[in-house]
């Protein structure tokens, strides 16, 4: 699949409601997963899971605008399907963060590995905030608990090192 980044960015810059923050967060998650895959490969570790996350997040981003339209302008069934898809996006984003938290790479790749975690974590928060503003059910409460657990991780609390 050929991806035209310039065209996509110009689409975001237009006045249409989508793509917007959610789509950008999903593309960022795909990039974070791809970076984790690279770090894993170069460290001689398993990388296939991160490849799958990169592909999944890319697919989610491609469907994000359609889901938003279904949620805002579709009938009850379309809106429910959009909500279920949104929950899947958030669960998957947090799952990626949880896998990145466990990732151990060569020291020379630690900055890239930490960058992948930071990008994924912030993107997961964007998705949660976008979605959570509309819902307060137990699924969202559970997702907040998983995010809190990630916040307590050493990677999330580490100060940024400058050369």
Topology-level CATH name: Four Helix Bundle (Hemerythrin (Met), subunit A)
Largest sheet: none
Q: How many E-type strands?
A: 0
Low-confidence stretches: 158-163
SS summary, helix count:
7
Oligomer: single chain
Write down the secondary-structure element order: HHHHHHH
Structural class, please? mainly alpha
CATH class assignment:
Mainly Alpha
Could you walk me through the main structural features you see in this protein, from its secondary elements to its overall organization?
It is a single chain. By secondary structure, the protein is mostly helical. The protein has a single domain, classed as Four Helix Bundle (Hemerythrin (Met), subunit A), CATH 1.20.120. It contains seven helices and no strands. It has helices at residues 5-13, 21-42, 48-73, 76-102, 110-132, 138-151, 154-157. Helix 2 (21-42) runs antiparallel to helix 3 (48-73) and helix 3 runs antiparallel to helix 4. The longest helix has 27 residues, at 76-102. The radius of gyration is 16 Å and the shape is globular. Mean pLDDT is 82; it is low at 158-163.
């Amino acid at each position: 699949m050929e991806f035209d980044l310039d065209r996509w960015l110009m689409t975001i810059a237009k006045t249409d409601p989508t793509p917007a923050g959610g789509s950008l967060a999903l593309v960022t998650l795909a990039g974070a997963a791809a970076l984790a895959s690279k770090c894993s490969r170069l460290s001689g570790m398993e990388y296939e899971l991160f490849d799958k996350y990169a592909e999944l997040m890319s697919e989610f981003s491609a469907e994000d605008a359609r889901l938003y339209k279904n949620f805002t302008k579709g009938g009850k069934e379309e809106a429910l399907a959009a909500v279920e898809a949104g929950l899947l996006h958030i669960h998957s984003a947090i799952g990626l963060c949880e896998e990145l938290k466990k990732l151990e790479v060569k020291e020379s790749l630690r900055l890239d590995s930490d960058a992948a975690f930071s990008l994924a974590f912030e993107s997961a928060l964007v998705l949660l905030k976008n979605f959570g503003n509309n819902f307060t059910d137990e699924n969202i409460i559970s997702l907040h608990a998983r995010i809190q657990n990630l916040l307590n991780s050493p990677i999330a609390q580490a100060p940024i090192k400058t050369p």
